[in-house]
Amino acid sequence: KIYLPPWRLPRTVAMASVVFRVNCQATRPGEAVFVVGSGEPLGNWNPVQAVKMSTSSDMFPVWSTPQLAMPTGRAIEYKFIVQREDKKGVQVRWESFNPNRSLDVPEPGTVLTATSAWDDLKSALMSGPQVLGAAPPSPAAPSAPWAAPPDVPAKAREVLSELTVEEALARHEKEEILLKMAEYGIDAAHSETLSACPLAVTIANREERRRDFSQSLF
Question: Residues 81, 50: contact at Cβ < 8 Å?
């Protein structure tokens, strides 16, 4: 048996996943977008070893890679290139800016999505990291129906019972605004107030009766 000291034993490298996406319309028929960069997963800056990105009629001009395994605890540099799909052409078009794009590989067992626009260094957007295999978040529970106070008339109670709490509060807020506008004599709000707010109808009728009574005194 061959004895190896501990410092020469192979180590298990912790891995995370990175997905690259880029918005690129610079391709011609027969060409594709690739991502190339530092480290073996990205081809060590060799266009022949670059990772091919894919798109579709529904997704174009967005190109993306599958989840690429990356060693954690280090930063990587990369760029997007355009070349022939089979990589046999001699012409490779690189993003023209310097320095290179870069990102920090996330924690083990997570996935990071790096989204960019072609030839625009400042456009990079990182989303995540998300835990691999994690269940999607549970959908929010439906909002409880609005509980109308006992003194609300039957017709209004019937309408309110069909609203959620958020909808009822939004309607109440709108009514408050319209009432304030009507009180200050803003004509544009008057008709809308009467149609949107039952309470305003009652107030309007009361004010009209009050004016008729005041005029009868003279």
Answer: yes
Phi then psi for 147, rounded to 5 degrees? -95, 105
**CB hemisphere CA count around 10 (13 angstroms):** 2
Count of CB atoms within 10 A of residue 190's CB? Answer: 15
Sign of CA dihedral 7, 11, 16, 20: positive
pLDDT digits (tens, 9 = 90+) for 82-126: 999 999 878 999 999 999 999 999 999 999 999 999 999 999 899
Are 17 and 132 contacting, i.e. CB atoms less than 8 angstroms apart?
yes
Averaging pLDDT over each range in 20-29, 148-157, 197-206, which range is the top one? 20-29
Sequence-distant (6+) residues with CB within 8 A of 64 are: 19, 20, 21, 22, 53, 54, 55
Instruction: Please tell me the distance from the alpha carbon of residue 34 to that of residue 49, in angstroms, as a whole number.
Output: 10
Per-residue burial over 10-35, b if 16 or more Cβ lie within 10 Å, else e, is: eeeeebbbbbbbbebeebeeeebbbb
